[in-house]
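Cross-posted from the bioinformatics board.
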Amino acid sequence: MGKKSSSISPALAALTSAAMALPGISSNVKAAVAANEPKLSLAYTRYDEDSIPSNDALSTAGDRDRYDIDVAQIQFLYPLSDKWQITTGFVYDDMSGSSPWFIQPTDTLTATGDPLVVMSGATIDDTRYDFSIGAEYFGEKFTIAPSIGYSTEKDYKAISGALEVEYEFPSKATSLRGGIAVSFDEIDPTQEPGEIRVNNEDKENYAIFGGVTQVINKHTILQTTLGISYFDGFLSDPYKQVWLPTGNLPDSRPGDRTQYTFATRLRRYSELLAAALHVDYRFYYDDWNVRSHTLDLGLHKVTDSGWAFDTSIRYYTQTQADFYEPFYRAPRADGEYSSDYRLSPYGSVSLRLGLSETIGDWTVKLAAERYISDKSYSVQSVDVENPALLDFTQFTFGVDYSF
Amino acid sequence: MKNIFYIILISIVASACTTVNPWERGILAKTEMAWEPDPLMGQLQEHVYFSKEGSNGGYGAGGGGCGCN
């Protein structure tokens, strides 16, 4: 297999780069032809959730530490020919910590006051194994990419599949892309004495998306995508409860959910900064009445000496689900309950930094992210903040090797 | 309503486009101009946001769920 461009002149590298772009714009989405050499990527990530602040948790509720997760990722890309390549992936998650169980008011007799988190009693330990394999075919006009995946952990299994197709117009300035995805998940919660939890539930997901990619000028490219995703089955969290004056009830959500997304991504190269500006925006809406906006702004710079630097800031805000309350003062007629912070109104900001260096066939990568969420970051006014809102930090170390 | 918005957006974008010859696309092919310059890290980010936020999806086909809570 050939070596990387570190051994060729800058002029030849520029010509090679332009030649690779000749087939059109698919090269910006995926390579327009299969990779010319196998590539192995390894990464280790340490993910740490902040503990629940003491004034937001019931003082007698035990451990306020949330999840810490060690994540190992392996990906191997292998070109079979100039038309075909396969990518296999493996992810190992090792999770440990406590999770918010339910939320109760400071005054339980009158069901008034501030919400306080009660955490799951014992530390939860679990491991997740995720296997995936995908193929990509690069035709004259079409790129076709089928993939399948399997994820398993102590109480959860998921098998998924997807097919993506991209068609490039003869002008090579516009391409249409679309795809379908399915997932079949099985939930078998760990049972605890004294707790009533479901047994052997399942859920299904069917998704479809379509979009267009357009070269705007020689410095700018834009992609927009519309998507619909339908979930059916057990969509509740079997380990969460909600508080009512008459006693706790299990988290109980509707049996189906339809999600709609509009997403657009812009890449603009600045000659002044010799760097690429990334702008990603997504609008999301679902029939639980959750609406969200996500804006991600990034700057990516690669130097001639092989260093790459990227930084980005991401803003996220969502509204609450129809049936969400931090705690309930009375039973609901529809029987739907959840105090999960993920269905509460809030906003979040995260900052990411990444640095990598490529020397010959090796690339060494470091990255860090700090994520904080708060009711004050929401675009809408939030009366009562869910006290289990998440803050986390993660660090990643990775290595790529091209054969 | 969304379809109308989409059509209008495409029209605006298309009208703003200039012809870019194949030999002028070197910049568009740069690594830093990719939708996801580092697929492995992008995959991890998507999984974290999928697990920890109330909404997900948007840019393509996703994988299966998980018991992450």
